[in-house]
Amino acid sequence: MLLKKLNPIFKYLNSKQWLTVSVFLLLWGITSVSYWKKYEWNPSSMVNFGHEFALQNKSETPENVILFKGESGDLGAGYDGQIFYYFSRPLSNFNLNWPKGFDESYRAPRIGYPMLVGIFGLFGKKSAIFGMYFWNITLILISYFYLRKLLDDEVKPFAILYLLSPFALGSYYVLVSDSVMVSILIIAYYFYVKEKYLLFVLLSSLAILTKEPALFLLFPLGLAALFRKDWKKMIVVGSVLVIPVCWHLYLSYRFPNWRPGRLTDFILPFEGLISYMESIWSQLATGSNVKELARLLSRFPLVVLFFLGVFLPFTGKLKKGWEFRISFLLVLFMVGTAGYYHFWSVYENVSRMFTLSIPILLLLMNEDKTVRKQEYILVTILILFLFLIKVLFISKQMNYQVGF
Predict the structure, then answer these.
(1) Are 382 and 302 in contact (CB under 8 A)?
(2) CB 39 within 8 A of CB 65
(3) Can you tell me the distance from the alpha carbon of 288 to that of 158, in angstroms, rounded to the nearest whole number?
(4) What is the pTM of this model?
């Protein structure tokens, strides 16, 4: 079995943590440099400022940043990293004015990441950009060591999958919040296990405010506490909703058009997967554009991973780690109900939805050693290599300008 052949590598890296961290820094460093190289070695390029949005928020845009002008098929100028940057600026300026041009209906609840970035933003606009790099890198390293403490000796070598996750790397590549949310959530879960409940509640609340899929782990934890009639833990897990609910109540007052059910607009069962497969068949039928076909097929390993993931929680001893099985299935539910236009049409959008699946898999493996994880792990490793090939050799330079 191929995974067994890889086990010595996992074990060796586990015994040399300095080497593991060095591989992580090298991997993320090479990815960063490959991006900067295309845009005059300017680190602001990874924030993905869109020219049209920068014009609307000119006073809060740093000088000499890379501004993307937008191209056909990119769903608009720039990418989501700029939203978190621009929303951090009011927080640094001690106000809650939503930046111009962005839809507040489902972005505004995600204040966690902008709040962290806003701490660095107190020292200036470019410091805020540094903060986006800092939190992505620092939090995943910290959470990695906390996660290792939760795993027994047999599973601990596989923790490197979390540190070198292609999905966390993909989130970092565009400086968005998925990796940050997962990192905070893993640290919170560590304190839950250690019964340091105040830290758990605060960090879990921050994770939810960073991105809602944090609930995919927290909800099953509450179910487990209910099943075991552990009333104290039930109250503790329920308490993580207090701060997010208060923030949502404020949003309903601050933004008249805001509604918490807005996110349900994106739940389209199998529409994304079906439309994606249809786009492949259509391209194969015409056979006119090899590059377009290659771009479409770059997402296909994620389809394979999705179906492997749906199968995985139903293997092994089902009574063991059932809360993590539910958590894993909730992540896959999110992927399966993601629409084509907003998610499956863009590699980065769909790939980072798998980010939480890796630590949950490790926690499930820790509870049930017999769960069938080989295929999911191997495809994840394959996706990592394909992602590196993509960013190093395939990703093209986009249309941009430096400053206004």
Answers:
(1) no
(2) no
(3) 43
(4) 0.95
pLDDT at 400 over 70: yes
Supply angle C-alpha 183, 187, 188, rounded to 5. Answer: 115
Output the 3-class SS for the chain: CHHHHHHHHHHHHHHCHHHHHHHHHHHHHHHHHHHHHHCCCCHHHHHCEEHHHHHHCHHHCCCCCEEECCCCCCCCCCCCHHHHHHHHHHHHCCCCCCCCCCCHHHHCCCCHHHHHHHHHHCCCHHHHHHHHHHHHHHHHHHHHHHHHHHCCCCCHHHHHHHHCCHHHHHHHHCCCCHHHHHHHHHHHHHHHHCCCHHHHHHHHHHHHHHCHHHHHHHHHHHHHHHHCCCHHHHHHHHHCCHHHHHHHHHHHHHCCCCCHHHHHHHECCCHHHHHHHHHHHHHHHHCCCHHHHHHHHCCHHHHHHHHHHHHHHHCCCCCCCHHHHHHHHHHHHHHHCECHHHHHCCHHHHHHHHCCHHHHHHHHHHHCCCCCCHHHHHHHHHHHHHHHHHHHHHCCCCCEEECC
The candidate with the shortest Cα–Cα distance to 391, out of 25, 19, 29, 20, is 29
Query: What is the pLDDT, as a whole number, of residue 78?
Result: 82
CB 298 within 8 A of CB 347: yes
Cα 351 versus chain centre, distance: 8
Q: What is the pLDDT of residues 216-233, one digit of tens each?
A: 999 999 999 999 999 999
Alpha carbons within 13 angstroms on the beta-carbon side of residue 39 total: 26
pLDDT at 75: 44
Residue 162 has pLDDT above 90, yes or no: yes
The CB density around residue 263, as the number of other CB atoms within 10 Å, is 12
Please write down the long-range contacts of 141-144, taking CB distance under 8 Å and 24 or more positions apart: 141/21, 141/24, 142/183, 142/187, 143/182, 143/183, 143/184, 143/186, 143/187, 143/359
Read off the pLDDT band of 265 (50, 70, 90): low
Which residue(s) pair with 66 in the sheet?
A: 402
